[in-house]
Amino acid sequence: MKRLLAYGAFACIAIGCENDLSAVAAFDTKKLGVEQAYNVETIVSQSAVVKGVLTAPYMERYVTHPPHTDFPKGLQVIFYDDSSRKESILTANFGRMDEGNNDIFLRDSVVFINLTSAQRLDCKDLRWDSKTSLFITDRFCRLSTLTDTIYGQGFRANQDFSWSEFVHIYGSFVPQDSILSLD
C-alpha cells in the first residue's frame, strides 16, 4: 500500500511539472521588473509639511524602460495647503506616472474638486505636465462652480486651479466683476 501511494505521488508530481523551458521563461518575463503593492498610501511632503496624500487599492511599478507606475484600479489624491487644511481632491479610475519626466496621466472619470474655491472639474482624461506645472486636456470637460457650469473642449489650469482656461468654451456664466441692474 505504501509503495502504491509513493508511485501515485511521484506520478502526480511528474505530470504537474512543465518541461517546456520556453513556456517557463515566457511566464517569468511577463512579471520581470514589475513591483506590485496593495492598499497604497503615499505621503508627499515639502520641508516637513504634508502637501498631499495619495491612496490607491492597487499599484504596479515597472522598472523596465521606460520606468513608470500604474494605478489600474483607480487613485485618490488629497492636497493640503501650508496650514494642513484640505485644499483639493483629485480622483481617477486609472493613473500613470512617468518616472523619467514626472508627468502624470489620468483617465476614466477624472474629477478634481477645489474645496477653497468650490470648483469641480470633470473630464475623461487629464495630464499633469511637470515642465509647465499645468494640468492639460484636449478632450471635453465641465467646470462647475456654485453659480455656473462651463463646458469646453480643451482645458489648462495651474496646480491649485486658481488660474484656468478653456480652448473652446460654451455655457452660461456671470462674470464676477459685473453688476446687474434693473434700471
Q: Gap between N and C termini, in Å? A: 107 Å
Rough shape? globular
**Mean pLDDT rating:** 81
Which parts are unreliable, with pLDDT below 50 for 5 consecutive residues or more?
none
Order of helices and strands: HHEEEEEEEEEEE
**Biggest sheet overview:** 6 strands, antiparallel, barrel
What is the total tally of β strands? Answer: 11
Q: Walk across the major sheet and give the strand order.
A: 2-3-6-7-5-4
Please state roughly what percent of the residues sit in beta strands, choosing from under 5%, 5-15%, 15-25%, 25-35%, 35-45% or over 45%.
over 45%
Q: Determine the fraction of residues in helical runs and give it as a percent range.
A: 10-25%
Helix count from the secondary structure assignment: 2
Structural class determined from secondary elements: mainly beta
Mind telling me the C-alpha Rg?
25 Å
